[in-house]
Amino acid sequence: MSRTRYGVGPWTLATPARGKAFPTRPAMETADVVVVGAGLTGILTATALKQAGHDVVLLEASRLGSGHSRAASGVCGLLVASDFRTLEATHGRRLARTLMTTVTASIGAMANGLAKARIPGAGDTRTLLSLADPGVKGWDRDVSARTAAGLTAATVIGAALGKATTAEASAAVRLAGVGLTGPSRIVGGAITRLSGARVKVFEKCPVTRITFTRVDATVHIGTRAIVTPRVVICTDAPGALAPTLDRHVRGFERYHVLTAPMSSTMRKAVGLGATVLFDAQAGVAMTATPDGRLLLTGGDGPILPEKKRPAAHVQRTGQLMYECLKRFPAIVGLAPEFGWSSPVVAGPDRFPLVGPHRQYPHQLFSFGTDGDAALAWLASRILTRAVADESEPADAAFGFSRVQEVRS
């Protein structure tokens, strides 16, 4: 039996040891748009802006696509399982509905967009079954709230639940809008597409600060600087480039497990080939990969300092496996092969924050997307439209006004 590999994701290992190297010293002094951060969102955005006719510079502090985009679980769309009643109480029905419908549609939009761009890895769409406890009074009220808002949701109990899943469960809510993707394949294909678009890309170019006037912004990279009317920041968190935005975001660590291949008996007992099972009480999502492994994601906790992560990976891997075993006793003896994590920084409601902020007149931001390829695709479209001053009404739902004007 192979030992569990902790702290490294299987998709990261699928990355070529030596990918294409990009220049490290930008020589230009001006650009139409400077994109900071070359995770999946930044890569997709820079490519789209270049195809729209802009002179684009993409700056990455490390190596392209080497961060959290490849460390994601591959499960997309879990935000659709968010409690809609809480979302509605916080933001009002109209905005809550817009958030939910847009995120639900992002899986299909991503798949179509990647297909047109000839980028592999879009994977497949799956049904989400969010498990519920019928012993808790009002467990089905979320379905009623979604239905009243014009969203699609259905309770699943009894014989229908038995047909939908073999999990040890008494009730569930069926939702659409989730899928399973190949993070490494998407990032690799996006980088190839970026190269073909001839974006000016520079690696190992950490941006030290951004200054701005009423007319333009200046992006400082060490002793060099690029003047531009528009900066698009696609980093993991606001950080030093936009410190006043830290108050608008919340960070958490999400843990992932990929098991060894299941036996044929386990596969049959577990199913999950077209389903993502979400255990709302435990906060863990479970599905099966095409090659017959279990993929688990969840167990969210605080972002830990580096020295504490190894112990957390071991503990959370065991926790996720235990939660899965409770639902699928047939997997007893199945070993995890990988246990890793990825940090996420998003709005307090865990939905992404994408768009402008009034304190930074020449900048656009994207936080909370790279752990979900569909959200990264959605954010890249919102950002591209914003640069062209062609934003759609639904784009505003993902902006900072959502967290600045939260109802008391």
Any overview of this molecule?
By secondary structure, this protein is α/β, with parallel strands linked by helices. The chain has helices at 10-13, 40-51, 84-91, 93-116, 141-148, 158-164, 183-197, 264-270, 309-327, 373-387, 401-404, and strands spanning 5-6, 33-36, 56-59, 75-76, 124-132, 154-157, 171-180, 200-202, 209-212, 217-221, 224-228, 231-233, 250-259, 275-279, 284-288, 294-301, 336-346, 353-357, 360-367. The chain is globular and about 65 Å long. The N and C termini lie far apart (54 Å).
Topology overview:
Elements lengths: L4 E2 L3 H4 L19 E4 L3 H12 L4 E4 L15 E2 L7 H8 L1 H24 L7 E9 L8 H8 L5 E4 H7 L6 E10 L2 H15 L2 E3 L6 E4 L4 E5 L2 E5 L2 E3 L16 E10 L4 H7 L4 E5 L4 E5 L5 E8 L7 H19 L8 E11 L6 E5 L2 E8 L5 H15 L13 H4 L4
Parallel strand pairs: 1-17, 2-3, 2-12, 3-8, 5-14, 12-19
Antiparallel strand pairs: 4-7, 5-7, 6-7, 9-10, 10-11, 13-16, 13-17, 14-15, 15-16, 18-19
Helix pairs in contact: 2-7, 2-10, 3-4, 4-10
What is the compact description of this entry?
The chain has 408 residues and is of the alpha/beta class. 30% of the residues lie in helices and 26% in strands.
- The portion of residues assigned to helices is 25-40%
Q: Based on helices, strands and strand pairing, what is the structural class?
A: alpha/beta
Largest sheet composition: 10 strands, mixed
Could you report the average pLDDT, rounded to the nearest whole number?
A: 93
Termini, distance in Å? 54 Å
Mass-distribution shape:
globular
CATH homolog superfamily of the largest domain: FAD/NAD(P)-binding domain
Domain count, please report it: 2
